[in-house]
Structures are given as structure tokens and as C-alpha cells.
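Aim 2 progress update. The chain analyzed this quarter is reproduced below.
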Amino acid sequence: MTKQQGTTLLVTVAILALIVSGSVNSNLYRLRTGDRETPELEGGTPLVTFATVVLGGFRGIIADVLWLRATYLQDEGRFFELAQLSDWITQLDAHRAEIWAYHAWNMAYNISALMTEDEERWRWVTQGLNLLQNRGLPINPDDATLYAELAWIYQQKIGSTLDHSHAYYKRQWAQSISEALPPGGFLSQTNTKGAPRTGPPKDLLRKRWYLNVKQMSIIDARFGPLDWRTAEAHAIYWAWVGREKRGLAAQLQCERSLYQSLNTLFFRGRIPATLPSAGFPSRARPDLFEKCCLAFESATTRYPDDENILTAYRLFLQSAVLLLDACQNDTQAHTALKKLNALDGANHSDVVDAFVQSFDLQQLSGMARASILQERRFSKTRTSHKTNNDK
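Predicted C-alpha cells:
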């Protein structure tokens, strides 16, 4: 045998050994993931595709190498390249929920922020949502990480006012989801003859938004009625479902998203039946006070040692006294003050008027302060109209 023939033989044996090892590791990988098939890589470079087919069970190693590259792209701010690379990583190691969450976050936050037009920004936000709802969740239905990330995008990216395009996001989401909801966005409604309205189309909600109508109804009965055109209602949905899934840290994140989103709806959860072409007007929903208390108290029961939850509940009750007083809901304002005193050891006056007069609004968040001032103005308007009508 010549030296050249020997070299050829060694190379051939090495290639065969690599293929066999890939086959063996593929079987081991399937055993490790519970016989769940990982989707074949689509849209990758020929080199990545070749490595995936040959190395089989070494997909996780390839994914780790690509993660190093992703970290570099993140540091460089090359978010479009990062989006493509993250897509390959999700296909290589589809059962790691953190990859899906990272990919969705990059789309909804980093790439969308690079866009100058509202429409383009919204397109990337929805791509992040769709990635989690329609691709990540079906593969990882028991991991709380994806539910927590979904709840956060609805709550913070769409629901908050931090993004200058937030009003556009809110309008687009409300108009989109309205296609599958009864008029007004509430699940529990009756028509003009008093008969129940036809319920939302289950197939559309399931296929387009991965929503379960039965689960929506359970959440609505416990915390609502919710206007499902609001982003916060969907943050509550995903947080409620996700808090029972696997992953302690993500469970706690879901719990926080749940009571925070309900808290937001209390202050600005009432939106008009017909939305305007600009802006996103809202009013307080004092009727959700007891449901907010339920969410906070449930959270303190589940996490009795978490001081952050108690602090959030205390701040809610302080602002709730003021808002309910502004809305002229005297009974509930007194209930809120009573709960606050029980939490703080009777450190406050038990008279609502005295508490309201002594409280500095600057201690509250901007959202709570704006809502209280808005409702006070409406109360003055109502009082003025009533006085004029009595004359």
C-alpha cells in the first residue's frame, strides 16, 4: 500500500466514523429529549446544514458555538444578523426555551427599535410574539420561561408607554384581536334581547394566537370581566397559564406580570368601544378593585417571603384609596384604607377624607397619579353638571 493510498484510507475511515458517531449521538439525543424530534434546519448556510446532518446529536455543541457568535453580534449591535443566527439556533436546539425567549426579545425590542415607521416597528413586535406563540410553545409547552416572556412583551412592550409607538401598538393589537371577539372585547355579553352573544371562534383564537377559550373564560371569571382588546388582558392570560409550568424563576415572573397587569387595568383599563385613529384614550376601572386585591393576596400566599410583592400591594392600596375616592366609590375607598391599615399595622387614619388630604400624590407612579387626577376632573364635571341641572 502506497503512502497516498494509506492517507486516503485513513480519511475515508475518519469520515465513516464521524457519520456513525453522528448516527449514534442522534439516537442518544432523542432519548435525552424524550423521543421528541427536533425540526430540521431551514434557511441555514450549506456549512451549517452539512454539520447538522453529519453530527446529529452534536447539535447542542453547534448551538453553543453559534451562541458565542450571537453574543458577539449582540455586543456589536448587529441585530439583523443576530435574528438570522438565532433562528438557526432555535432549529438546532429547539427544546431550550431560553433560546426562543432571547430570539423573540431581540425581535420585539432591539430590531423594532431600529425602525423609523410605526408599521415596521409593529411588524417586528408581532414577529416576536408569533415566534413564541406559534413555534416555541408547541415544542416547549411545559416551560414557564416562554409564558413569562409572552406576558412581559404584552405587558411592557405593548401595554406600557415607554416606546414612543405604544399608542399605535395598542390600536393595532385591539383591532387585530377584535376580529375574534364579541363586540366590545368582552367574553361575557348579552345581545339586545338579553340572550347570550355568540362566543368567539375557538379555532381562530387557537390557530392565530394560540389562545384557549376555556382558559380565557376561567381567567375572565376570576379577574374580570376583562376587555380582551387590551394587551394587559393577554399578559394576564399568559402569566396565569405560565405560573403553573416548569421553572421557579419564570413562575415568579409570571406571578408578578399577573398582578402588575391587573393593577394597570385598574388605573387605565376602560377603552372606548370605537377606537380613534390616533392616540389610545383610557379611563380607570374601579370595578376591578376586588379582583386586584385577590391577585395581590394570592401572590403573597404563594410567595410569603417576597417583600417586593408586599411593597407592591401596599403601593396599590395607597393609590386605590385615592382613585376610588376620586371615582366617588366611598364604600370601596374605605375598604381599601382598611386593608392598607391591616397591612401597615393601623399606621394611617381610618377616615378616607383625612387620608386623601394628607397624602402626597408625588409618592405614586406617573400612571396612578395621572389616573387619579383624570378621575377627579371627571368628578368635578359631573358635580358641576348636577348642580346646574338642579337650578
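The longest helix spans residues 3-32. Residues 118-186+201-302 form one domain. These observations will guide the mutagenesis experiments scheduled for the next reporting period.
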